[in-house]
């Protein structure tokens, strides 16, 4: 595929990036440099390890899209070979592989990296938090990205926002949930802060990679499971056991995906290629969010009409209790870890600043 063809398929976003649309976000124009990638003859061959099943819709495909974007925007000077989860390293070891230089780049979600510290999971999602648009505004206009990069700095890893699944579903449950006590004792697969909230509610939270979920559901090792949303859940086959599909996705109203780049590998690139990588991440980020936004409803329609999946809303008292537990978890995190406290305060301050604007602009679809 030629570079011009790729830019067209990217919806013109890469062209906007090269034209300086990213000014103020680390674009070359902001530093008085040219966006043109001058060919000095150097070629770079990167390995990308990912936390996703190879080629999975949205996530695995998003990693492949990023690899193509980097190649095209670098004029072919950076080639990226993509490895799915377990091809080179397990899904939950992607961060470590990039940190030690076994791979130059990774594609995953920050809530998987427990060893980085409690603040990491805040850069995937916050229960009852901001939506995708607001979260990206916090990163680029509210100081969130600087906090994120400061957190990873000690590991010689540079994070780049590189996708978002948008709002997720609340998960698949073998039994109906009528009140908070129904969660007690359930074995549930749920990552990040949502998982900690579920622990507070009495559930037994299990960590596992996405492609291990179906067998765990089938084999009786799980009573409930959360993955992404209709688009990704259908592909994994999570609908095959007739479980109840709950909404809203209180645990992840937005879900950031990140590109992790080894600092030494990034700094070995000429400045023009560094900017090509930066722009590629922005293009891939927009592409993923658009894909999930378009495909989730299509997949949900199929789950309901073809497979008779029962879609149910969590009762309001259950949601209210989960929100209360979320507040407790965040407050304790802020008290116990100073870095997490800084991130939480920044996030919540920005969310509060947007509250009035959200109220004024969120039109009820049924109005009029």
From TrEMBL:
<dbReference type="Pfam" id="PF03480">
    <property type="entry name" value="DctP"/>
</dbReference>
<dbReference type="InterPro" id="IPR026289">
    <property type="entry name" value="SBP_TakP-like"/>
</dbReference>
<dbReference type="InterPro" id="IPR038404">
    <property type="entry name" value="TRAP_DctP_sf"/>
</dbReference>
<feature type="binding site">
    <location>
        <position position="189"/>
    </location>
    <ligand>
        <name>substrate</name>
    </ligand>
</feature>
<feature type="binding site">
    <location>
        <position position="226"/>
    </location>
    <ligand>
        <name>substrate</name>
    </ligand>
</feature>
<keyword id="KW-0479">Metal-binding</keyword>
<dbReference type="InterPro" id="IPR018389">
    <property type="entry name" value="DctP_fam"/>
</dbReference>
<keyword id="KW-0732">Signal</keyword>
<dbReference type="GO" id="GO:0055085">
    <property type="term" value="P:transmembrane transport"/>
</dbReference>
<feature type="binding site">
    <location>
        <position position="252"/>
    </location>
    <ligand>
        <name>substrate</name>
    </ligand>
</feature>
<feature type="binding site">
    <location>
        <position position="168"/>
    </location>
    <ligand>
        <name>substrate</name>
    </ligand>
</feature>
<feature type="binding site">
    <location>
        <position position="227"/>
    </location>
    <ligand>
        <name>Na(+)</name>
    </ligand>
</feature>
<dbReference type="GO" id="GO:0046872">
    <property type="term" value="F:metal ion binding"/>
</dbReference>
<protein>
    <submittedName>
        <fullName>TRAP-type mannitol/chloroaromatic compound transport system, substrate-binding protein</fullName>
    </submittedName>
</protein>
<dbReference type="GO" id="GO:0031317">
    <property type="term" value="C:tripartite ATP-independent periplasmic transporter complex"/>
</dbReference>
<feature type="signal peptide">
    <location>
        <begin position="1"/>
        <end position="23"/>
    </location>
</feature>
């Amino acid at each position: 595929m030629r570079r011009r063809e790729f830019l067209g398929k990217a919806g013109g976003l890469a062209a906007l990036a090269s034209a300086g649309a990213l000014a103020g976000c680390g674009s070359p124009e902001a530093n008085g440099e040219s966006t043109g990638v001058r060919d000095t003859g150097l070629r770079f061959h990167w390995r990308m390890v990912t936390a996703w099943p190879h080629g999975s819709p949205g996530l695995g495909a998003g990693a492949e899209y990023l690899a193509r974007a980097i190649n095209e925007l670098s004029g072919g000077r950076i080639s990226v070979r993509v490895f799915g989860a377990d091809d080179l390293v397990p899904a939950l070891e992607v961060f470590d592989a990039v940190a030690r230089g076994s791979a130059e780049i990774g594609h995953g979600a920050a809530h998987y990296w427990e060893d980085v510290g409690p603040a990491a999971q805040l850069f995937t999602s916050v229960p009852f938090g901001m939506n995708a648009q607001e979260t990206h505004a916090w990163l680029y206009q509210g100081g969130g990205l600087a906090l994120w990069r400061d957190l990873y700095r000690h590991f010689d890893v540079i994070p780049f926002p590189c996708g978002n699944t948008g709002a997720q579903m609340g998960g698949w449950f073998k039994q109906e949930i009528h009140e908070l006590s129904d969660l007690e004792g359930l074995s549930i697969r749920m990552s990040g802060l949502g998982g900690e909230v579920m622990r507070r509610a009495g559930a037994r939270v299990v960590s596992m990679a996405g492609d291990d979920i179906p067998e765990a559901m089938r084999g009786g090792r799980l009573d409930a499971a959360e993955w992404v949303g209709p688009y990704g859940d259908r592909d994994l086959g999570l609908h095959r056991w007739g479980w109840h599909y709950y909404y809203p996705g209180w645990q992840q109203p937005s879900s950031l995906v990140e590109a992790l780049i080894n600092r030494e590998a990034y700094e070995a690139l000429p400045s023009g290629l560094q900017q090509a990588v930066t722009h590629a991440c922005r293009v891939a980020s927009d592409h993923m969010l658009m894909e999930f936004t378009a495909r989730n409803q299509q997949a949900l329609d199929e789950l309901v009409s073809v497979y008779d999946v029962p879609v149910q809303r969590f009762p309001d008292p259950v949601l209210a209790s989960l929100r209360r537990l979320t507040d407790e978890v965040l407050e304790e995190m802020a008290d116990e870890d100073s870095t997490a406290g800084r991130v939480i305060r920044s996030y919540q301050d920005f969310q509060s600043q947007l509250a009035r604007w959200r109220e004024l602009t969120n039109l009820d679809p049924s109005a009029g």
